[in-house]
Amino acid sequence: MKKSSIIGIVVIAIAIAVIISTYSNTSTYGSFNDAKSTKSELHVVGRLNKTKELFYDATKDANYFSFYMKDNKGEECKVVYSGTKPEDFERSEQIVLTGKMTGGEFHASKILMKCPSKYQDGKLNVSEVSAKKSASI
Amino acid sequence: MDTVFKGEHLLPGQLGQFFVVLAFGAALFSFICYFFATQETVAKSDNSWLRLGRIGYWLNTVAIIGMGVCLFYILYNHYFEYHYAWSYTSKELPVYYLISGFWNGQEGGFLLWMFWEAVLGNILIWKAKSWEKPVMTTLALSQVVLGTMILGLQIGSAHIGSSPFMLLRSSGIEGPIFQNPNYLDFIKDGKGMNPSLQNYWMIIHPPTLFLGSASLVVPFAFAVAGLWKRRYKEWVQPAIPYALFSSMVLGTGVIMGSFWAYESLNFGGFWAWDPVENASIFPWLILVAALHVMIVYKNTGHSYFTATFLTLVAFVLVWYSSFLARSGVLGESSVHAFTDLGLFWQLVIGILVFFAITVYLLISRFKEMPITKQDEETYSREFWMFVGAIFLCLSCFHLVLVTSIPVWNLAFGTKMAPPTDPVKHYNFIQALFAVIIALLSGFAQFLKYKKTGTTRFFITTLVYFGFAALITALVVYATGFYKLHFLFIIVMLCSIYTIVSNGKILADAVKGKFKLAGSAVAHIGFGLLLVGALISAGTKKVVSENLTGEQYSADFVKDENPKENILLYKNEPLKMGDYMVTFTSDTIEGASHFFNINYKRVKDGKTTESFVLRPNVIQAQGGMSSTPDTKHYPFHDLYTHITMTNVITTGPKEEEGQHGDNTDDKKYDAPVTHEIAVGDTMAYRDGIIVLKGLNNNVKLQNIPITNKDIAVGAQLEITTHGKKYQSEPVYMIKGRAVFDFGKKIEDAGLKLRFTKIIPGKTLADGKVEITVYQQPESKKKFIVMKAIEFPYINLLWAGTIIMVIGFFMSILRRNKEVKIV
Questions:
Q1: Where are the domains of chain B?
Q2: Residue A46 bridge partners (DSSP)
Q3: Which of B180, B470, B594, B708 has the most CB atoms in a 10 Å sphere around its CB?
Q4: Are residues B559 and A82, on separate chains, in Cβ contact within 8 Å?
């Protein structure tokens, strides 16, 4: 067999492996209900319930922030985020959480929020915070 | 009837718009002329098409410069009737940030891209000789496509391009204000610049990045010209120096971006695998692969198709990454993508134009291409360079695949979400590719083109590999890198191997074979870059660990709580790692609010090191942006940024100077009264207070004290957290009324009142009553901050600089080899 055909086969094999590993690593967008039935992390899109309390007191614990969010199906759940409260959180219009359900609370490891006209019109008004351990290579 | 608006400066905008149209028209004209110049038979030609083509291109260049001047004039004079000036700048912005305001918006970005392409085109007109006609056809076409992006033509409801000279009142922002002819009187200032962009790196990073991406058109144009004019074998050599230049500049631009992110953004790192970041390196990876294969072809005649294919694809990827960043498609997955300016389909057409050219030429010319039938030797440099290039492409393939998830969703109606932990996913898979690429850039250098003696090759390879393994063991042990996944240690080994083996090549080169020096230096730089990135990202340590142990629920703790932020009250030192940190003061300088944080390293009671870091917070456009400050050591960096503070409030300020004591007292905890005599000490939460003495000669402002009145001051000394403060509250009886004048010590968060005199047998024997108010913890000024230590990050920057030097040396060498007619 020629070397070029061997390389070709190897390349195709690696490409397929990459596609499969990527596909298996993708997560899904779901609701809080979905989160209850799975143990893996997923993305939940929803809105902040502004009528309920947002709890953050840096003097007690600078790394604890909790709030209530309604997902797109209207279900509400308490969300706990271990980090500081993101700036302008109250003004957010839409929130994308990454995390999983622990007990009755949704523990978010990442919050991506969209605020109205926070920055320029041209720039997307999205900001992201992550509570992941920093050393994460 | 049309309203006549007052106070508008319409001339620069109209002139600018004229230049926009002129640039587009001239580019189109130039494209057509160059196209016919290329198609006509040389013998019959009187070169009139060529001359017209040149004139068109020069006109295009002039128009682009004209646009730039007009736009800058508008920004410089703060003509907020223009949407661009209003959106991105404000009056208080310093001039050097007006320059970065220039490319703040997408339109400015396109303008910059066109400008660089115009510069490159003029160089090619001057240098390209027989290649000028076909190469310039492609460049002119690219200018046409770019020109449509900023045309700003409105046809019915559809619009073509978005012009930087659009007026605010016609920008689609509705408001009754625009019915008023005096509307400009109400627009006092622009919206200002996004605070995170107010950084000197934003002046230099975008032009570099755009020069890099724009220059990719040149190798593309050469490849197109080679296929089009059937000069298959000739195009490669003149294209190599340009490809080297593109890789150098684009690489520099990308790393500058990550340096900017590291220095002024607060995500705590230099690379976050954000989709927009990934998109910027797609073309770089493919171009570097193409470059290697082009050199293979030049030296051996092998791999012609791959070289051509990759050169063409690299430029198509420039358009694809531009599409990803600008079309709004990444909305849900990226932090810094643009929103759609209505250019979505125009950008798609941009990709398709160049993709169609690529596909057409590759298919129609396939049979004529000089493709070799026989295989490369296994022990030859070209074979392994080829394999390395393929792995660069695979690495790019993976990045494209994951970054484009939103595109797949859009195209196939699926609902995939990106990986929940993208950093881990990218790190792992890219590390696999890095192993092979680093290994190959090490040992391929020991091979010769065509054929190499195997024995000698194996001996040198193994000797240097052993040497690299030894160094790796030392490095891994010294930096604590061994705690990481095994795979990353392998990457480290291969990167160090690249450095050592290329070091050997460099040493040989200095002795004689100087030709190889450029590539050796570039590969050493690449190896160092990998090593620096691995160590600093892999062993970075959060120093600001919260050890106070205040927890919420046991559940929460179990969840591997990061606890990476610490709370610092003003003037209360806290131990953080090896340091004693104190938040000493805050100052406002312009739009930035600086926090002075004192770091002290204490060893055996002695201060061995003391410095101040000044992270700051910029407030603009209703948002806050935190800029870190970093202490640079030769072998590590200490990075600090503010994550939260109560010093600045974004909400309406509480009314200062509350009326009456009662409301004021509410700001404090319940008061505590102490009856003490002179010399006594009383304790409070944060320290002690000593009554030093009583002062009968108190002078009060605005209140005359007569002999009948009694006014006594209590001289108090407060000691808190190693600092001493003096305070003298006053007790006064005037006529029949009793007054007391409390004193506040803001820095200590205290208010002290002298509330009673309890007479004793003698005056000295008497006691006084002091009421102590202390602020609740939450009312005291505090900051929440995060500090990270990045070890050996300087290797990353040094590696980049060395790599750039290597590229530059290679450009000089390859440029000498080029002989074009």
A1: 1-193, 235-418, 665-737+760-770
A2: A71, A95
A3: B594
A4: yes
- A24 Cβ under 8 Å from any chain B Cβ: no
B105 closest CB neighbour out of A18, A122, A127 = A122
Asked whether the beta carbons of residue B488 and residue A61 sit closer than 8 angstroms, the reply is: no
Q: Which residue from A minimizes the CA distance to B428? A: A137
Strands (DSSP E) contained in B590-650 are 592-603, 606-613, 616-620, 623-627, 629-632, 636-645
| pLDDT beyond 70 at B168 | yes
Closest alpha carbon within chain A to B164 = A122
User: How many CB pairs lie under 8 A apart between chains A and B?
Assistant: 191
With CA atoms as reference, the chain B residue closest to A135 would be B540
pLDDT band at A43 (very low <50, low <70, confident <90, very high): confident
Stretch among B458-472, B538-552, B731-745 having the lowest mean pLDDT: B538-552
Structural contact between residues B384 and B440, judged by C-beta atoms closer than 8 angstroms: yes
Whether residue B339 and residue A123 make contact (CB cut-off 8 A), yes or no, is yes
> B778–A62: do the CB atoms touch at under 8 Å?
no
Tokens encoding B276: 């927009």
The least confident of A113-117, B93-97, B318-322, B351-355 is: A113-117
User: In Å, how far is B267's CA from the nearest CA of chain A?
Assistant: 8
| Residue A74, min C-alpha distance to chain B (Å) | 20
> Do B247 and B287 touch, CB atoms closer than 8 A?
yes
Side-chain-side CA neighbours of B377 within 13 Å: the count stands at 14
Q: In what order do the strands lie in the sheet with B743-745?
A: B672-676, B767-774, B750-758, B743-745
Domain, as residue range, for A91: 28-130
If contacts are CB pairs under 8 Å, which of residues 357-416 in chain B contact chain A? 375-376, 378, 383, 386-387, 390, 394, 397-398, 401-402, 405, 415-416
CA B328 to chain centre: 19
CB contact under 8 Å between A85 and B555, yes or no, is no
The reply to whether A14 falls in a domain is no
Contact A107 B559 (CB under 8 A): yes
3-state helix, strand, coil in chain A (%, to 5): 25, 35, 40
Q: Tokens at residue B592, please?
A: 């930035």
* B736 Cβ contact list (under 8 Å, min separation 6): none
Residues in chain A, overall count: 137
Give the pLDDT of residue B337. 59
- Of A68-77, B154-163, B512-521, the one with minimum mean pLDDT is B154-163
- Farthest CA pair distance, chain B: 126
Report the candidate in B12, B262, B61, B242 with the shortest Cα–Cα distance to residue B135. B242
Q: What one-character-per-residue DSSP string does B462-483 give?
A: HHHHHHHHHHHHHHHHHHTGGG
A72 domain-assigned: yes
Closest residue in chain A to residue B568, using alpha carbons only: A59
Query: Where is B417: in which H helix or E strand?
Result: strand B416-419
Considering only CA atoms, which of A136, A130, A132 is closest in space to residue B483?
Answer: A136
Residues 6+ apart with CB under 8 A from B686: B572, B720, B721, B748, B749, B774
Question: Which amino acid, residue B631?
Answer: K
User: Is B342 part of the contact surface with chain A (CB cutoff 8 Å)?
Assistant: no
Closest by Cβ to B337, choosing from A27, A109, A124: A124
Q: Which residue has the higher pLDDT, A110 or B665?
A: A110
Considering only CA atoms, which of B82, B74, B76, B80 is closest in space to residue B152?
B82
Q: Say whether A62 and B566 touch across the interface (CB within 8 A).
A: yes
Q: How many domains does chain A have?
A: 1
Q: What is the CATH number of the domain that holds A64?
A: 2.40.50.140
Q: What is the pLDDT of residue B550?
A: 46
The answer to whether A28 contacts B417, with C-beta atoms less than 8 Å apart, is yes
Are B393 and A14 within 8 A, CB to CB? no
